[in-house]
């Protein structure tokens, strides 16, 4: 894993300002923000990885989301994370997101559907919901996810990898679709990671995701 981290950090450094969080600290780093008042039990350190325990609130609902974000800075950027989905039941997922508001955001995630793990890309623009990708990767629970700005700032590109080396392009989302001009939402865009539980499982316990790192550069 550290070898891939080094290559990733070097590639980010070529873009400009690079920031890598390997979640080795005992506390959440101050550059991370919470979308809602956090439930502390949902944010834990787990042997050098960040453990995000899934909550039942979707990003379209009011409530405490298990999510960490940073302001999306102007200009070209690249954001990447590696995660492992643990104890997942139907509908549980974890991934990265671009977020302007509850009804203006993009989610790129690994989702569990009846034991089949699927890469999904969702776009929410006001009352319109779009599923741009729903691809099975079998029982594999570990994945690398990446988002970047492409086409001279006109598109957000999303891709994933199953080994940290070879990436598969998912889809592009036009930046104008999430813009204040198109949506009427003037809240600043944020980028980050999240964990979501699709069903309440009090007896079976909560699903969670282990994040090895999150790298952000522009």
Task: Produce a short descriptive summary.
With 218 residues, the protein is mainly beta. The protein contains two helices and 14 strands; from the N terminus they run H-E-E-E-E-E-E-E-E-E-E-E-E-H-E-E. It has helices at residues 2-15, 180-183, and strands at residues 18-21, 43-46, 49-53, 66-71, 78-86, 93-101, 104-113, 116-125, 128-136, 142-150, 155-161, 167-174, 190-196, 208-217.
How does this model look, in words?
The structure is a single chain. The chain contains two helices and 14 strands, in the order H-E-E-E-E-E-E-E-E-E-E-E-E-H-E-E. It has 218 residues and is mainly beta. The strands form two sheets. Strands 1, 2, 3, 5, 10, 11, 12 and 14 form an eight-stranded antiparallel beta sheet that branches. It has a six-stranded antiparallel beta sheet with strand order 4-13-6-7-8-9, with no helix packed on it. It has helices at 2-15, 180-183; strands spanning 18-21, 43-46, 49-53, 66-71, 78-86, 93-101, 104-113, 116-125, 128-136, 142-150, 155-161, 167-174, 190-196, 208-217. The relative contact order is 0.26. The mean pLDDT is 87. Strand 6 (93-101) and strand 7 (104-113) form a beta hairpin. It is 8% helix and 49% strand. The protein is globular. The longest helix is centred in the N-terminal third of the chain and has 14 residues, at 2-15.
